[in-house]
């Protein structure tokens, strides 16, 4: 597979180059040159297939010739030493739990695969520089911890993330440095963007982004849609997916899986009140405004980075894209009401992001399997779920955090301060 920048720059790139560069020299995101079609027999016989089997089939076309199939197999095995169980809650209603990895959020799927790619493909020393609104940081810190030749610098907004999230980012030490910025997530993202645009610094430090602008994070996420279908009861031959969305990386992966031929029936992207895309679909006017803080903080985003990739999957046709993806947005009050409803009707404890996913399932027709993605474990957000009385199952990686100490470095809200640090 070759990769192209969304704004063409007269050449194509290998997977290795696209991952290493994050963005093309013209600042554009990389996308696969074409979307491969899955083998029909694979789709027919997907029931019961493991994540590893699905990964081998779905990822092969995207990483050939850069990784051999033995290397791919090794990457999948080391990255995904946990599963994505599909839980049936009610008649035709399912939750796909994507939080069984070490950071207890779905980002482990993309970030851990990316870390394996670095082990397999790169020998030079690199610096992973990443801004986080909460969950990316934890996934990046644990995935790249202790990898020789990889320095990790994570920027997070002071007092804007949960204590569990902060412990995940800032308590590991070794090659992982946490910088606590006096500002919000947009400020952190702006600093990272500024530093990536400084050619000298970028090449001297060999900066790499682990945000979902990096194609290595996006591609592996197509696999858990297959794993969900593999676990559906016999009576369903397809499923509809409701995806809690912020930067729309997860939703983009769903659309790629669908275009490859997986039977994803309907797809719904759900946002909190930071709803630039749902508003765009309603009004035709794209208006990015500063974000508001919500209970689903990993989705507090003003401009969804992956949206241009979604548009490109539909030849930049507004109508085709609107036809392919349903959208909805809900307030914090509706989020809490949905968390309570999940508890009262199904005895299921969900994090606020997941509760938004549940809300999206109401948009699907009822003769399809209605699946919402659980993007994080509820105990990542104990502040929000404290009023929920149901017994919340523990998560081993979260239990282990409480004996650790936060050790972050405070920096001013400026690119200069972070550059000095680097
Ligand atoms: C990152 C995140 C999201 C949003 O995912 P995108 O791919 O950015 O749309 C949703 N829920 C949780 C818990 C997250 O960490």
Question: What best-fitting shape do the alpha-carbon axes yield?
Answer: globular
Query: Biggest sheet, strands in spatial order?
Result: 3-4-12-9-10-11
Give the number of helices: 20
- Overall strand count: 13
Largest sheet: 6 strands, mixed
Average the pLDDT over all residues and give the rounded result.
94
Structural class: alpha/beta
Question: In percent, how helical is the residue content?
Answer: 40-55%
Radius of gyration: 20 Å
Strand content: 15-25%
Unreliable residue runs: none
Ligands, deduplicated: pyridoxal-5'-phosphate
How far apart lie the N and C ends?
34 Å
Provide a quick synopsis of the model:
The protein has 422 residues and is α/β, with parallel strands linked by helices. 42% of the residues lie in helices and 16% in strands. Bound molecules: pyridoxal-5'-phosphate.
């Amino acid at each position: 597979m070759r990769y192209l920048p969304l704004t063409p720059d007269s050449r194509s790139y290998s997977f290795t180059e696209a991952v290493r560069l994050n963005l093309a020299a013209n600042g554009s995101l990389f996308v696969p040159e074409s979307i491969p079609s899955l083998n029909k027999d694979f789709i027919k016989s997907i029931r019961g297939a493991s994540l590893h089997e699905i990964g081998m089939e779905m990822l092969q076309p995207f990483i050939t010739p850069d990784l051999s199939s033995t290397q791919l197999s090794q990457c999948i095995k080391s990255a995904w030493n946990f599963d994505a169980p599909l839980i049936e809650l009610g008649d035709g209603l399912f939750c796909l739990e994507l939080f069984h990895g070490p950071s207890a959020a779905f980002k482990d799927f993309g970030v851990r695969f990316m870390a394996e790619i670095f082990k397999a493909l790169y020998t030079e020393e690199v610096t992973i520089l990443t801004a986080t609104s909460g969950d990316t940081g934890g996934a990046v810190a644990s995935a790249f911890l202790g990898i020789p030749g990889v320095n990790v610098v994570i920027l997070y907004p002071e007092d804007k993330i949960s204590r569990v999230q902060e412990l995940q980012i800032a308590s590991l030490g070794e090659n992982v440095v946490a910088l606590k910025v006096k500002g919000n997530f947009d400020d952190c993202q702006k600093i990272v963007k500024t530093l990536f645009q400084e050619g000298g610094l970028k090449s001297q430090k060999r900066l790499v982004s682990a945000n979902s602008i990096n194609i290595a994070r996006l591609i592996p996420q197509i696999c858990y849609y297959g794993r969900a279908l593999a676990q559906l009861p016999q009576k369903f031959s397809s499923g509809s997916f409701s995806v809690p969305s912020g930067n729309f990386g997860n939703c983009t992966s769903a659309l790629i899986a669908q275009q490859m031929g997986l039977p994803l029936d309907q797809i719904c992207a759900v946002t909190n009140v930071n709803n630039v895309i749902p508003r765009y679909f309603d009004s035709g006017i794209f208006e990015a405004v500063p974000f508001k803080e919500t209970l689903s903080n990993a989705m507090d985003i003003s401009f969804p980075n992956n949206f241009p990739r979604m548009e490109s999957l539909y030849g930049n046709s507004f109508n085709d894209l609107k036809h392919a993806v349903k959208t909805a947005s809900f307030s914090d009050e509706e989020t809490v009401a949905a968390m309570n409803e999940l508890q009262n009707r199904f005895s299921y404890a969900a994090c606020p992001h997941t509760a938004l996913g549940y809300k999206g399932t109401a948009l699907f027709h009822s003769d399809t399997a209605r699946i919402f993605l659980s993007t994080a474990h509820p105990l990542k957000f104990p502040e929000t779920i404290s009023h929920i009385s149901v017994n919340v199952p523990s998560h081993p990686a979260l239990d282990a955090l409480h004996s650790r100490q936060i050790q972050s470095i405070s920096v001013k809200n400026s690119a200069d301060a972070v550059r000095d640090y680097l």
